[in-house]
């Protein structure tokens, strides 16, 4: 279904953004680029201005050793598969979130972190840097938390797989809003 109103640049960016899961080229993802994107991404809404996130960057030079360490946390029969999987992207940005004791603040922190990740993703897309937010089982593994120095009061919100690409991923549509929308009548 075509949009009937004239789209803004932001609306177009939101609609054109894709998850880039594979097909990365050899252009390196630099720490400087990631930091520049984060300088704007962290302006996401955050309740009480808690800014409940921090980041661990794994660049191209450290990726193979990192993939080896994370793969080693899996059962032996899965390690080769996980090693190959973790060597696909050019770099990773691991997003770590503060975990408060209070459920309301936990929800607010996760919402803020998700907004920040979306900001990062859109900003990266604008620079033709592919991103996909992954929440594979290893993000919950205490050994992976230890590898990344994730504290007791923190959780890994996800691994952002990063890499430049030559071929656009296939566009997947969305259900019409009217299928997901109701008006309170009560």
Tell me roughly what share of residues is in helical segments.
25-40%
Average pLDDT for all residues: 94
Gross morphology: globular
- SS element count, helices: 6
How does the major sheet shape up?
Answer: 4 strands, antiparallel
Sequence stretches where pLDDT stays below 50 over 5 or more residues:
none
N→C terminal distance: 32 Å
What percent strand?
15-25%
Compute the number of strand runs.
4
Strand order of the largest sheet: 1-2-4-3
Radius of gyration, rounded? Answer: 18 Å
Class by SSE composition: alpha+beta
Topology pattern, helix = H, strand = E: HHEHHEHEHE
Account of the 3D structure:
The chain is 37% helix and 17% strand. With 186 residues, the protein is an alpha+beta fold. The chain has a 4-stranded antiparallel beta sheet with strand order 1-2-4-3, covered by helices on one side. Helix 2 packs across helix 5 and helix 3 packs antiparallel against helix 4.
Brief write-up:
The protein has helices at residues 9-16, 31-41, 63-71, 76-86, 103-126, 142-147, and strands spanning 53-58, 91-98, 129-134, 154-164. With 186 residues, the chain is an alpha+beta fold.
